[in-house]
TrEMBL record, chain B:
<comment type="similarity">
    <text>Belongs to the eukaryotic RPC3/POLR3C RNA polymerase subunit family.</text>
</comment>
<dbReference type="GO" id="GO:0005666">
    <property type="term" value="C:RNA polymerase III complex"/>
</dbReference>
<feature type="region of interest" description="Disordered">
    <location>
        <begin position="168"/>
        <end position="195"/>
    </location>
</feature>
<comment type="subunit">
    <text>Component of the RNA polymerase III (Pol III) complex consisting of 17 subunits.</text>
</comment>
<dbReference type="Pfam" id="PF20912">
    <property type="entry name" value="RPC3_helical"/>
</dbReference>
<dbReference type="Pfam" id="PF22536">
    <property type="entry name" value="WHD_POLR3C"/>
</dbReference>
<dbReference type="Pfam" id="PF08221">
    <property type="entry name" value="HTH_9"/>
</dbReference>
<dbReference type="InterPro" id="IPR036388">
    <property type="entry name" value="WH-like_DNA-bd_sf"/>
</dbReference>
<keyword id="KW-0539">Nucleus</keyword>
<dbReference type="InterPro" id="IPR055207">
    <property type="entry name" value="POLR3C_WHD"/>
</dbReference>
<keyword id="KW-0804">Transcription</keyword>
<protein>
    <recommendedName>
        <fullName>DNA-directed RNA polymerase III subunit RPC3</fullName>
    </recommendedName>
</protein>
<dbReference type="InterPro" id="IPR013197">
    <property type="entry name" value="RNA_pol_III_RPC82-rel_HTH"/>
</dbReference>
<dbReference type="InterPro" id="IPR039748">
    <property type="entry name" value="RPC3"/>
</dbReference>
<feature type="domain" description="DNA-directed RNA polymerase III subunit RPC3 winged-helix">
    <location>
        <begin position="348"/>
        <end position="424"/>
    </location>
</feature>
<dbReference type="InterPro" id="IPR008806">
    <property type="entry name" value="RNA_pol_III_Rpc82_C"/>
</dbReference>
<feature type="domain" description="RNA polymerase III subunit RPC82-related helix-turn-helix">
    <location>
        <begin position="8"/>
        <end position="66"/>
    </location>
</feature>
């Protein structure tokens, strides 16, 4: 190794022709930028297969993709409750919930720890609507009844109050709201609910001497 | 699990089962084995969602579970079977094969079982009969017995098999009452003696045409008592893969030689379907007499012609058929592993040719044949000028298709005293191309998702308009109304939709085609591993 240093000094360890450029030429220019993301292709790709078989499999693939979105195996996370309550929440009760599974697997073939409540398929949505109608009808009847009793107010004031209280206990929430509503706006027989109206009497009542805190 | 494989698994799970399952699945693939609690903690998903995802994955056979490291008393551990996830790419091919072999009934049976993972025989029969009835004209309906016969045919030819028994219950509950060996879930389905035995079920009736107001609940209640509770069937992917392999060999023979020789090879493969085990390197030896008897008369091949064809096949350099003896007119086998290796080699060569040109392909083939060559020898043998040959060699080297082997003359590896030999190893190159293919499919899927997302608004609009049109037509509207609705999509929008459809079709078709390459390369790699 050390002995060959003196001899053959001008010889390179590989033949210069193999490098691709001559002795006096400059080195090939170095790249200044990264290579392009989509380099131009030297050879165009071969066209795809065509034929009846290919078309059929293509149609199958697209159909499978579309139908798998509707199967119960396609799991969507339940929507987290937002701060705003939407009007449409009342009508969208078919949404998925996290703690029910939409299909019924054979639990004997799965580990017990995966067991989760199976969501029973909802029978037609006619039921909740049907139960609402009697409530609304009952509310109307009770309002009519109340008006009749109010007409007789002068004569039977105490007993009316008792009846009203009994009805309040028997009634559900909607007629209660109606009653409160009736009381509120019947005070001055105007269209405006009195508690919403602020006639500005309280403005400026507080003393302005101490201005430590800003008034918004 | 390479990065590309994980990425592809994630995309496939997302396409079929949604984002939640994709998150759970990819995390489980990356971590290897996990318990339920660890998985929920690491993915930061609610426990219920993780449970649901695991149920879906177990149902489809993509996730296996078993007693963990702490033994049967500890928590259950889950792992994902990546190969099974990749099979999802090939579903259209399985369904089409079933259709070509067993008609529409077979096609629907396989499609139902693929989409649901595992099903009992009775529920499959009912669902398929209903679907067929739905497509039939009014008044006709599909009888259950026809569907049952198609199902039995599929089972007899081993395309469907029973799901392996699950000994899952005992591994997680504390009480082990029976002294069963608490086997982890992946018992081979073939080890079950009744793997292909049809249950006796009492199932008569016809498919029902589903009206929109009827509920499927009544059917579900009646379905319970059919006599085949707990016997679930799944698709036997290995059998389909053997079928695809045979198809590939037959088409290669017909391309290389001619139609009649491919028919002879088809007959040989058909005869040895049931007798050859799955990973065998050769089929069973068949005598020429047997082959002649088994040949269909429609091929019209006389006995001496058959002998000539057989000797031609044996002499062919592709070595599809080999001669192992002389009794019975000559004993012939089909060399399965060698055929796969040759098909893989042809794939590699064609890839190099299409990417780098025919001269680079010539260099590649030369190196495959001659194993190790120096640069000077490459230039001479390939008859390509030195500068260009050098350029091509270096390009192939930079793409890792060609490797450099150093053979030192002296122990100090001095460059002037070392031989540098170029070589191509078929197996590592096949693995490399397989990874490239996975990356390609992943790119195709991502591009398709991107295209769909870009034009989401337009797609939704067109769907809405189609729905409006359909409802108008159902209620019998006039032509003027229909044209008015159709005009709601302007002409440039229509063009945009058309080009979008064209792109998506192209991308989908490409995925199917790349999957064929994946299948071939994977079969070749598996065959080399089996023989080791």
């Amino acid at each position: 190794m050390a002995g060959s240093r003196g001899r053959g000094r001008s010889q390179f360890s590989f033949s210069v022709d193999a490098l691709g450029f001559g002795r006096g030429d400059s080195l090939p220019s170095s790249a200044h930028t990264p290579s392009p993301l989509f380099p131009p292709m030297q050879f165009r790709p071969v066209p795809l297969h065509t034929g009846e078989e290919v078309d059929y499999m293509l149609a199958l693939k697209q159909e499978l993709r579309a139908s798998s979105k509707n199967l119960p195996f396609h799991i969507k996370a339940a929507r987290t409750k937002t701060d705003v309550a939407h009007y449409s929440d009342k009508y969208q009760n078919g949404e998925t919930k996290n703690n029910c599974i939409e299909w019924s697997p054979d639990w004997s073939r799965m580990p017990k720890e995966l067991c989760i409540k199976v969501r029973k398929p909802r029978k037609t949505g006619a039921k909740p609507q049907l139960t609402r109608k009697p409530k609304v009808a009952a509310g109307k009847e009770e309002v009519l009844q109340k008006l009749e009793t109010l007409e007789k107010r002068e004569e039977e004031q105490h007993s009316e109050e008792e009846e009203d209280e009994e009805k309040k206990k028997q009634n559900e929430e909607e007629p209660d709201a109606d009653e409160d509503y009736d009381e509120e706006d019947l005070e001055d027989e105007t269209d405006y609910i009195m508690s919403y109206f602020d006639n500005g009497e309280d403005f400026g009542a507080d003393s302005d001497d101490n201005m430590d805190e800003a008034v918004y | 699990m390479t990065a590309q494989e994980v990425r592809l698994c994630g995309l496939l799970l997302q396409e079929h089962f949604g984002n939640v399952v994709e998150k759970v699945g990819t995390h489980l693939i990356r971590s290897g084995v996990l318990t339920l609690r660890a998985l929920a903690h690491e993915t930061k998903l609610p426990l219920d969602l993780v449970k649901k995802s695991l149920c879906v994955l177990v149902q489809h056979g993509m996730c296996t579970f078993g007693a963990g490291r702490r033994g049967p008393a500890g928590p259950v551990e889950y792992r994902i079977n990546c190969e099974r996830v990749f099979h999802m790419l090939r579903y259209p091919r399985y369904i089409y094969t079933a259709k070509s072999l067993y008609g529409d009934t077979g096609e629907l049976i396989v499609e139902e079982i693929l989409q649901r993972g595992q099903m009992t025989m009775s529920s499959t029969v009912k669902t398929v009969a209903d679907r067929l009835t739905h497509n039939m004209p009014e008044g006709q309906s599909m009888d259950y017995s026809e569907v049952v016969s198609a199902f039995s045919q599929l089972v007899e030819t081993h395309f469907l098999q029973r799901c392996p028994l699950a000994s899952a219950g005992s591994s997680s509950s504390g009480a082990v009452d029976t002294p069963l060996p608490v086997a982890t879930q992946p018992t081979e389905p073939e080890s079950h003696p009744d793997c292909y035995k049809l249950p006796y079920i009492n199932l008569t009736g016809q498919g029902k045409r589903r009206r929109s107001s009827e509920d499927g609940e009544a059917d579900q209640c009646a379905a319970k008592k059919c006599g085949d509770d707990r016997i679930y069937w799944q698709v036997n992917f290995q059998r389909f893969h053997l079928h695809f392999r045979d198809q590939a060999i037959i088409s290669a023979v017909s391309c290389k030689l001619d139609q009649s020789s491919s028919e002879i090879v088809r007959t040989m493969l058909r005869m040895s379907e049931v007798t050859t085990p799955a990973h065998a390197a050769f089929t069973q030896a068949l005598s020429a007499n047997e082959i002649f008897r088994a040949l269909l008369s429609s091929y019209n091949i006389a006995r001496p012609i058959l002998d000539q064809y057989l000797s031609l096949l044996v002499d062919d350099p592709m070595e599809f058929v080999g001669k192992t003896g002389d009794s019975g007119g000559g004993m012939y086998v089909v060399n399965l592993h060698r055929a796969l290796a040759n098909l893989a080699r042809a794939t590699l060569e064609s890839v190099v040719q299409e990417r780098f040109g025919s001269r680079s392909a010539r260099i590649f083939r030369l190196l495959l044949r001659k194993r190790h060559l120096e640069q000077k020898q490459v230039e001479d043998f390939a008859m390509i000028p030195a500068k260009e040959a050098k350029d091509m060699l270096y390009k192939l080297l930079s793409e890792n298709l060609v490797q450099l082997q150093e053979i030192p003359k002296t122990p100090d590896y001095a460059p002037s005293r070392t031989f540098y030999l170029y070589t191509v190893n078929q197996l590592p190159t096949a693995r490399l191309l397989l990874q490239h293919s996975y990356k390609t499919v992943g790119n195709l899927m991502e591009r398709r998702l991107y295209e769909t997302k870009e034009n989401k608004r337009l797609l939704e609009k067109s769907q809405r308009i189609e729905a409006i049109l359909a409802s108008l037509q159902a209620t019998g509207a006039e032509a003027a109304q229909l044209t008015e609705v159709e005009e709601m999509i302007t002409v440039p929008e229509r063009q945009q939709l058309e080009s979008l459809r064209h792109h998506i079709n192209k991308l989908d078709s490409s995925e199917n085609q790349v999957d064929e390459t994946i299948f071939l390369l994977k079969s070749y790699i598996n065959s080399t591993q089996a023989s080791l």
